[in-house]
C-alpha cells in the first residue's frame, strides 16, 4: 500500500514537470518573432501577428486612430494592441498586403472598405478568408466599452 502511494507521488511529480515544460515552451511560441507584433482584433480579441512595418501604412494608421478613439492607449487590458474592426475584414487587409504589398501599401482605410465591400458581392473572387460574412458587411465595430 505504501509502495503504491510512493509510485503515485512520483508519477504526479513527472506529470507536473512535463506540464511545466510544456507551458514554458507554449509561452515562447506565443511571442511574435523579431520584427513582428501581435494585435488583437474584434470583440473576441482574435490574435494576428503582423510585420511591424505595417504600422506605417495608411490603413493601419487609420485603424490605430480608431483604436485610440475607442479604447484609448495603451491597447487592451491584456497588454496587447487592440483594433476595433471585424476580424474577417482585417484578415482580408492582411491577405491583400501579403499578396501584393507594393500595390496595396498606400491605400487608406476607406479604399480597403470599398475594395472588400465590392468583393463581398462577388464572393468567388474574394481573397477574404470568410467572404460569407460580407453580405451584411460591417468591417468596423461599433463603439463599445473597453474590457
Automatic annotation (TrEMBL):
<dbReference type="Pfam" id="PF02519">
    <property type="entry name" value="Auxin_inducible"/>
</dbReference>
<protein>
    <submittedName>
        <fullName>Uncharacterized protein</fullName>
    </submittedName>
</protein>
<dbReference type="GO" id="GO:0009733">
    <property type="term" value="P:response to auxin"/>
</dbReference>
<dbReference type="InterPro" id="IPR003676">
    <property type="entry name" value="SAUR_fam"/>
</dbReference>
<comment type="similarity">
    <text>Belongs to the ARG7 family.</text>
</comment>
